[in-house]
Amino acid sequence: KDSSSGTSKFERRANQKIETFEIVPTLCISAMGMGENVSKVPPKGFQRPGNKLFFISAGITNDASGSVLLPETERGKQFHWQIDIQEYIRTIDRLTQLIDEGKIKAISVVDDGGIFHRLFEMMLGSGLGVNMKNFGDLELLTNALPGSFIVEAESKEDLNGLGVLEIGEIIEDSNLIFENDILKRERQSQG
Description:
alpha+beta
């Protein structure tokens, strides 16, 4: 970090040339707390075939990041975050309430890998699969969406009070099905 200018730079050597990255001002917050009942904490992996999957944007709209963690093709694009902090707080409070009520069966944040990446990780954690709905926005499936969530619940009614987009249903097979295309998870033999 260059303290006098308020900007941060990161340099690395790659293929005999030096790459310099401007790091956007970032506020990092970390918090820990005591939970009343650890058995109420929902896992990240899927829980039951037939349950529905929902995307929750939690008051954050638009995609954004020039992060060096993104592929080169994504870096440097002009993104603009719009965060409604009051909506985000209401969403987190409502999610906490639904978790306490046992209505959220699994939950995971969507990060720079996008929805597809997160769904795949949730599949790996459970051995179950997903039959995805076509909701017409392919960019939403692959873009960075920090601060948003994927939630498993029995029905949309269980998530009353949240703005949700149904993205699919959990299936018994460990496949990801999207628009009749099937991504199969091959199981390795133990031998």
